[in-house]
Specification:
mainly beta; Thrombin, subunit H; 2 domains; WD40_repeat_dom_sf; Methylamine Dehydrogenase, Chain H; four-stranded antiparallel beta sheet; globular; WD40_PAC1; 267 residues; 58% strand; WD40_rpt
C-alpha cells in the first residue's frame, strides 16, 4: 500500500506510518546504528528515512524500472531492479544527519538479460547471488564484478536466494515450488527438492530451512533427508517475507493477509 510502518514490539503498537511514493515499496532495511531506514520502491527509487528526524532525507533515483530488492554491507548499497541490472553504490553514510544531499557513486553494474527479482550477499560481501524472472540464478564475484556461475535452475521466477553461513552453498526458491542447493565453487546444482506450490521466501542456518509458501504455510525442510519435515500453518495469504535473529531463536513473518507474526522456536 506504499507505506513504511514502524511498530514497537514491546507495546505491539504502530508508532509511525510514512509514505514516500504513490507506488508499492518492495524492500526495506535498517542501517547499523538504528538511525536510518532504507526502502526501495516500484517507482525506480530508493529512499533514506531518518528515524531521529522523522523525515525522508535522501532519494536515490537509481534505476529505470522498479527496484525489487536492496542489501547493505560495509557502507555499500546493493540494489536489484526489473531494469535487468544490479547496482553497487558507495557514498551512503551510516549516520545521515542534517539536510545535505549525498553523492551516490555507482561502483559496479551487474548486467542481466531479464528483470532481477532478488539478490543476497555472502557474509564477507565478496559474492552476490541474483535470481531472475526467467529462473536463472547467477553467482557474482564482487571484487571483479564478473560472473562466476550462471545456473538456469527454476522454471519461473526465482523468489529468494541466500548463501550458507560458510559461503560454500547457495539456496534458491522459486515460483515452481522447488528448493535448490548450488555448490558455489563449481556452480553445480547439488540437490533440488519440490513442494506443490511457490515458495516465496526462506531463512536457513546452513542445515535447516524454513520457507514461506504461497498458501501461507511455513515449511521446514530437511536438507540431508531431501524432504519436507514439518508444515506449520502461518498466514491466510502468501508468506511474503521472513526474518530470523542471529541466535536463531526468534522469527518474524509477513504475509499477504497484512499480518506480521512473531514466532518463538521451541527446541
Amino acid at each position: 500500500d506504499s507505506t513504511l510502518k514502524m511498530f514497537s514490539k514491546e507495546s505491539k503498537m504502530l508508532q509511525r506510518s510514512i509514505s514516500f511514493s504513490n507506488m508499492a515499496l518492495s524492500s526495506c532495511l535498517l542501517l547499523p546504528g538504528d538511525a536510518t531506514v532504507i526502502s526501495s520502491s516500484w517507482d525506480n527509487n530508493v529512499y533514506f528515512y531518518s528515524i531521529a528526524f522523522g523525515r525522508c532525507q535522501d532519494t536515490l533515483m537509481g534505476h529505470d524500472d522498479a527496484v525489487s530488492k536492496i542489501c547493505w554491507h560495509d557502507d555499500r548499497l546493493y540494489s536489484a531492479s526489473w531494469d535487468s541490472t544490479v547496482k553497487v553504490w558507495s557514498g551512503v553514510p551510516a549516520e545521515m544527519t542534517g539536510t545535505k544531499r549525498h553523492q551516490f557513486d555507482v561502483l559496479a553494474e551487474l548486467e542481466h538479460d531479464v528483470s532481477v527479482d532478488t539478490i543476497s550477499l555472502n557474509a564477507a560481501s565478496t559474492l552476490l547471488v541474483s535470481g531472475t524472472k526467467e529462473g536463472t540464478v547467477t553467482i557474482w564475484d564482487l571484487t571483479t564484478a564478473t560472473i562466476l556461475h550462471q545456473i538456469p535452475c527454476h522454471s519461473g521466477t526465482v523468489c529468494d536466494t541466500a548463501f550458507s553461513p560458510d559461503s560454500r552453498h547457495v539456496l534458491s526458491t522459486g515460483e515452481d515450488g522447488c528448493l535448490n542447493v548450488i555448490d558455489v565453487q563449481t556452480g553445480m546444482l547439488i540437490s533440488s527438492m519440490a513442494s506443490d506450490e511457490p515458495q516465496r521466501c526462506f531463512i536457513w542456518d546452513g542445515n535447516s530451512v524454513l520457507s514461506g509458501s504461497q498458501s501461507g504455510e511455513l515449511l521446514v525442510w530437511d536438507l540431508l533427508g531431501g524432504k519436507i519435515s514439518e508444515r506449520i500453518q502461518g498466514h491466510t495469504g502468501a508468506v511474503t517475507c521472513i526474518w530470523m535473529n542471529e541466535q536463531c531463536s526468534s522469527i518474524i513473518t509477513g504475509g499477504e493477509d497484512r499480518q506480521i507474526m512473531f514466532w518463538k522456536l521451541q527446541y
